[in-house]
Amino acid sequence: MITREVFDEVLEYLSQYFEVTSNQSDVPMDQGTLAAKLSDKQGALITLSDRVDEALLSRCPNLKAVCNIAVGYNNIDLEACTKAKVMATNTPGVLDDTTGDFTWTLILATARRLTEAETYLRNGQWDGWKLKQFLGLDVHHATLGIFGLGRIGQVVARRAIGFEMKVIYHDVRRAAPDIEQACRANFVSKEELLEQADIVTIHVPYSPATHHLIGKRELEQMKPSAILINPSRGGIVDDSALIEALRSGTIAGAGLDVFENEPKLNPGFLELKNVVLAPHIASSSKATRFKMAMLAAQNLVAALTGKTPPNLLNPF
Ligand code: DGY
To answer: Model pTM greater than 0.85?
Structure first.
């Protein structure tokens, strides 16, 4: 079962190995429909909007593998999969550069207030050049604070070299010296990062440990001139606290690709000018989304033909 629309080549590839049921019309499935569709299937190519939990697995006795077209896998209950002897896989590596690039899209657009300025222009409000129009934050030579110096965090850090920035990072574990050197990044505490960074960007996976990593207290620790960037997962930032901080001037701006309870959006964001909003597209270049879907399909083929999938998350 392929739960959402994929590239034709991916469909053709999987059809060489399996009898495939696809959803090329891309109609999203609720939990009941998904369970019914998967109830007689052995493998599933899924996306981050499909929740694989104990309840679903209990209705799918033949299922052997669920292959996420995403690197993040907080939509999959790994423990439940292992208990049910269902292999779970993700797509690490192939999207790092593209997601890193988009992080910079958000950083630059937010710092230089691009969305706000374009809306002003489109609305016919522009009546000429003004010295103090849309004054933004300089990115060059600023301090970039990165939460999570994993694969994507490292890409973002390396891109910062071109902007001659000072890079600081915080993570659950300090990175190896060669990584710190390649990224020209200095390890600091969470508090130091929040207090010193002009731009705070988040690159950690979502888990109970990172739920609301950035909330009211953390936002108050940031500089009033600073901006927050989140291309990782909704739920890592407390959206209500962020809206309040943007409204009251606790911080200057935010660039967001992910939201709590997406695709529903806290309507407070739409009332704010100092936020750049994107619909979870950080990995969405043509080449990268193709690679992600193909890698997920290769994981599925391996899982169902007696091999170890290259990106197995729960060896058992
Ligand atoms: C991922 O791979 O986790 C991305 O969020 C999907 O776009």
So the answer is: yes
